[in-house]
Amino acid sequence: RLYRLAADRGLVVAQYNIGLCYDRGTGVVRSDADAVRWFHLAADHGYADAQYCISRYYQEGTAVVQDSCEAARWLRLAADQGHVEALTVGAKYGFLG
Questions:
Q1: Stretch 62-84: mean pLDDT, rounded?
Q2: How far apart (Å, rounded) are the C-alpha atoms in residues 4 and 22?
Q3: CA 84, CA 70: separation in Å to the nearest integer?
Q4: CA 54 to centroid of chain Cα atoms
Q5: 86 within 8 A of 55, measured Cβ to Cβ
Q6: Cα distances (angstroms) measured from residue 52 to each of 2, 27, 79
Q7: What is the distance between the alpha carbons of residues 71 and 68, in angstroms, rounded to a whole number?
Q8: Rounded to 5 degrees, what angle do the CA atoms 71, 75, 78 make?
Q9: Which helix (H) or strand (E) holds 80?
Q10: CA–CA separation, 24 vs 38, rounded Å?
């Protein structure tokens, strides 16, 4: 409940954490669509963890139309901030460089 209040007031880390709750079904009914919505809010404000999560959704085509270019764009944004998993995945699949 406090995360929701903070997220509604624009706290990016709270938006990301709500996305995680929906992604994992922690304290809420699991929902990819709701996870994407909350991750997008945080990602649009430059939160690297959320950008990485959004890239996974686009790569897999879960709750969004599969789009490898969009996945790579979000992955690059996260990697540009030094996000370790984004750097690793980007290098593995040739999205970076």
A1: 95
A2: 12
A3: 19
A4: 3
A5: yes
A6: 24, 22, 8
A7: 5
A8: 145
A9: helix 68-80
A10: 13
pLDDT band of 77, cuts 50, 70, 90: very high
Structure-block tokens of residue 7 = 């997220």
- Both tokens of 95, joined, read 């999205």
Single-letter amino acid code for the residue at 15 = Q
Distance CA 44, CA 27 (A): 25
Q: Which residues, 6+ apart, have CB-to-CB distance to 79 below 8 Å?
A: 86, 87, 90, 96
Q: Which CA distances in Å does 10 have to 14, 29, 67, 81?
A: 8, 23, 27, 21
Both ends of the chain: CA-CA distance in Å? Answer: 41
